[in-house]
Amino acid sequence: MIFLNGLGSESYDSFWSLVTNIGTWTPLFILFFLLIMRQYRRKEGLVISFCIIFLLLVTHLITDLSKDFFERLRPNNDLELNGIIRVLRQPESFSFFSGHASTSFAVTTLVVLFLRKNRAWFALLFFWPMLFSLSRIYVGVHFPLDLLAGALVGTILAFIFYRGYKRFIEPYSASARPL
């Protein structure tokens, strides 16, 4: 963590601060929505979009519960590390596991599962959660294990939601087939 965080310099601070801000990624969320709506009929695309939003909420809730359960201090709040690392953000909540990693990997994985037909997008779509997650080390608020655990939890939740969708929602929807 110290090594990765130490790779930074003031000239990159504004870039990584922008990357770590969720609002920066709004155009990507719009793209996700448009890709879903393009591949599925209107009604089904909206149902899938609501499924993605529900996954986001569940992932966020599990992340918050996990942080309160493990009570792991963030690097920026650890007195031994605070003087050694670059700190660009000062969140007060706990660290384990990363909400940025869990939610971004959950959403991206579920979108990719629904867009299986368009395999060319897969690698490009996963660029976002990887960059978004790494930004949390750069700004000094997460350890690498926080990111790995968050990515794993988000990915697992996405697969659970996808299987649930396929089993409980799709069979009852006449328009559930891609265009």
**What is the overall pLDDT average?**
88
Characterize the biggest β-sheet. none
Portion of residues in helices?
Answer: 55-70%
How many domains, as an integer? Answer: 1
Range of strand content: under 5%
User: How widely separated are the two ends?
Assistant: 45 Å
Count of runs of 4 or more consecutive helical residues: 8
Spell out the helices and strands N to C. HHHHHHHH
> Rough shape?
elongated
Number of strands: 0
Broad structural category: mainly alpha
Segments where pLDDT lies below 50 for 5+ residues?
A: none
Rounded to the nearest angstrom, the radius of gyration is: 18 Å
How would you sum up this structure, described in words?
Helix 3 (26-39) crosses helix 4. This protein has 179 residues and is an all-alpha fold. The chain has one domain. The termini are far apart. Helices cover 68% and strands 0% of the residues. It is built from eight helices and no strands. It has helices at 2-6, 10-19, 26-39, 42-70, 79-82, 99-114, 122-138, 144-169.
